[in-house]
Amino acid sequence: MFSKDIGIDLGTANTLIFMKGKGIIMREPSVVAVDTRNDTVRYVGKEAKEVIGRTPGSIVAVRPLKDGVIADFDITASMLQIFIKKVFNNSMLARPRVIICIPSGVTEVERRAVKEAAFKAGAKHVSIIEEPMAAAIGANLPVAEATGSMVVDIGGGTSEVAVISLGGIVAAKSVRVGGDELDVSIIQYIKKKYNLLIGERTAEDIKIQIGSAYPYEGEGSMNIKGRDLMDGLPKNIEITSLEIREALADPLSMVLDAIRTTLERTPPELSADIIDHGITLTGGGALLRGLGELISKETGMPVYTAENPLDCVAMGTGKVLDDIDRLRELLSDDTSGKY
Ligand SMILES: Nc1ncnc2c1ncn2[C@@H]1O[C@H](COP(=O)(O)OP(=O)(O)OP(=O)(O)O)[C@@H](O)[C@H]1O
């Protein structure tokens, strides 16, 4: 029977599902709202994200993957099962083959556990692919060729830097700094400077609207709302793009350090290729204004942002599904030879 194989980008911020023959068919935040009275999952994805910070005491919104690791396995597994069932409208004609990309920091136990969750959701075969490899494939880098390609995937919880050649990762570094950490830095900056407490969603909004890594044309300011820590009352303040750039400088310097370290570990022949072809940015963090300029200035390399950076990892899993006979060797755990 015809089976619709799927590729899953199980990210700390977003989960995307690619279906063979259809492309990306689901994009949902990796968020679950749990009713603590009976430990049941009440909402997942977009619905759950909407209720973050607004739930009554008994319903808690959790992000089961945090800082690039699986913080709560059972909830991750339930979320994965709900997403898989959702894309098949709860009716699988035939059991699908699944390729999952998980944050690279996860342990062997977590890796096996994620596979188990996919099996429970009805998968026939489950393979894992390394995140930077999937990102590079999704960004159309020539990963299988004898040339060095450098990818920097900046997600919600982690930033993964890798140099890939001949289908393998030659040098890599992963840091637990991604878009979430940028949001936290904004919260801390505003708290310290203005004694104002803002929520995670407001911080992300500020980052997307006026955040930057490098000066840009049309710099501006934004009116934000929070709770004054002195008198506990709601308050408005005006914040400028310059201040936000200052707030983001520290976490961004950690990403820059990871890029420098990876470049230092890269064999000279491949370094020469990177000078020629540049560094490719993927992941939602790549959308931060001026990030390419900053990395280019600090490394002296040309930097390109992939088209649709948020989709690269899911597209990468999809390309492997589409061309499994040729690309099977890029899966990190397909030792059987029988995909
Ligand atoms: N326009 C934008 N400017 C800056 N950051 C953005 C923008 N759009 C999205 N982001 C950030 O991108 C991050 C999510 O990226 P992505 O979906 O690639 O992460 P993920 O794959 O779920 O995480 P990970 O790779 O760590 O598992 C969030 O932190 C989000 O705030």
Automatic annotation (TrEMBL):
GO terms of molecular function: ATP binding
Subcellular location: Cytoplasm
Alphabetic keyword roster: ATP-binding, Cell shape, Cytoplasm, Nucleotide-binding
Biological-process GO terms, alphabetical: cell morphogenesis; regulation of cell shape
Matching Gene3D superfamilies: 3.30.420.40
Gene Ontology CC terms, in alphabetical order: cytoplasm
Pfam family, one: MreB_Mbl
InterPro entries: ATPase_NBD (IPR043129), MreB (IPR004753), MreB_MamK-like (IPR056546)
Residues the entry annotates as binding ATP: 12-14, 156-158, 204-207, 284-287
Membrane-crossing residue ranges in chain numbering: none
Chief place where the protein resides: cytoplasm
NCBIfam families with a match to the protein in the record: mreB, PRK13927.1
Oligomeric form and interacting partners: Forms polymers.
Protein family according to the UniProt entry: Belongs to the FtsA/MreB family.
Name this protein carries in UniProt: Cell shape-determining protein MreB
Organism the protein comes from: Youxingia wuxianensis
